[in-house]
């Protein structure tokens, strides 16, 4: 069930981005130097993309914790 919700959130977030933002992200992914040459602010677009991905990951963690009804703050830590 969480997978369906995650796909729905991804679809809503992806479709809510304006066309220029999607084109800029695609241009940077294709060739960063060409994107700079086209006048795209690569640093701002990359930062915005990472922020959006981070928010989606946080939402995913919240949904997983809510579904499992169990949250452990040490999940993901490397143990030595």
Q: Could you explain how this protein is built, in words?
A:
- With 80 residues, the protein is mostly helical.
- It has a domain at 42-69.
- It has helices spanning 2-16, 19-30, 32-37, 42-68.
- Helix 1 packs antiparallel against helix 4 and helix 2 (19-30) crosses helix 4.
- It is elongated, with a radius of gyration of 17 Å.
User: What's the average pLDDT?
Assistant: 84
Summarize the amount of helix as a percent range.
over 70%
Low-confidence stretches: none
Strand content: under 5%
Cα Rg: 17 Å
Distance between the termini: 34 Å
* Count of DSSP H/I helices: 4
Strand tally is: 0
Global geometry: elongated
Order of helices and strands: HHHH
> Helix/strand/pairing class, anyone?
mainly alpha
* Biggest sheet statistics: none
Structure keywords:
75% helix, elongated, 80 residues, mainly alpha, 0% strand
What does this entry show, briefly?
By secondary structure, the protein is mostly helical. Helix content is 75%, strand content 0%.
């Amino acid at each position: 069930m969480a997978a369906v919700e995650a796909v729905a959130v991804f679809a809503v977030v992806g479709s809510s981005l304006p066309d220029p933002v999607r084109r800029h992200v695609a241009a940077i992914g294709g060739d960063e130097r060409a994107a700079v040459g086209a006048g795209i602010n690569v640093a701002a677009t990359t930062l915005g993309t990472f922020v959006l991905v981070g928010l989606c990951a946080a939402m995913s963690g919240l949904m997983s914790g809510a579904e499992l009804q169990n949250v452990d703050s040490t999940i993901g830590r490397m143990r030595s």
